[in-house]
Every structure is written in C-alpha cells, then in structure tokens.
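Lab meeting tomorrow. Please check the following:
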Amino acid sequence: MRRLALALTVALSLALPPVAAIAVQPDEMLEDPALEQRAREISEGLRCLVCRNESIDESNADLARDLRLLVRERLVAGDSNAEVVDFIVDRYGEYVLLRPNARGANLILWTAGPALLILGIGIAVFALRRRPSAAQNDSLSSEEQARLDRLLGK
C-alpha cells in the first residue's frame, strides 16, 4: 500500500508543471525563445511587491503580471537586461530586487550582521578570560571546611 501511495505521489509531482510556469500566462510569453529566456532570467531576480518574498515570475498577483509585461515590453524595445532592471529599480526602488546590491547604504546592512557577531564573540571571549577559573577556587578555607563539616555532621 505504501509503494502504491509513493508511486502515485511521484507520478503526480512529475505531471504537474513547475510553480514558475503556472504564474506566467501564455498570453504574456514572447514569440522569440531567446527574449523569453532573458525575460525569465530578469523576472527571477525581481520581487513581487504584493507577495514580498516571491519573484514576479512565481507570483500570481496582478502587479507581478504588470511587471512581467513591463519587462517583456522593455526587452522587445531593445533594452539590455541591465537596462530593464535599472528601469524597474528607478520606478519602484531597490526593494524590488530579490538580491539587493551590496553598495552604498545597503553595505551597512550587509556588514552589520557579521560585525555584530564578531563583536559578540569578542565580548564573550573577554568575559570568559576575566572569570576566575575553577582551579583557583578549588580549595576551601579552614572556616568554610569547618562549617561544611558541621552541616554534614562530621
């Protein structure tokens, strides 16, 4: 029974088209396969402003469709991939990029995490080195030993 369920699951997963192919409608696709491939490459790097963490190639939102059509219009007009991305970034801001550039103000965001991690490790090492070791405090004073003997009933 398990084998039948597994075989059915595998067969259904292979029969379904990939998620990205579901979002892009046939009426959006370009006739030229090379231009369509370029449009897909650009679309994979652009964020859907409605879905937040999906590319416009994967999103079914109306705004994502508009952006996909805009990318294709710019490609048909003769723009290079970089010019298309720059046009969309100028229009919608750097937030539209799924992988923001590590330049300018973004450089602070890219370096802040690792810098704080290194700072935290440094503080932890410094604190651990200043802490007295167990070897220094392993013997009891005579007063502490006498009190311990009384508590233990020796």
Observations:
- The two ends are 70 Å apart (CA to CA).
- Residues 2-96 form a domain with the Helicase, Ruva Protein; domain 3 fold (CATH 1.10.8.640).
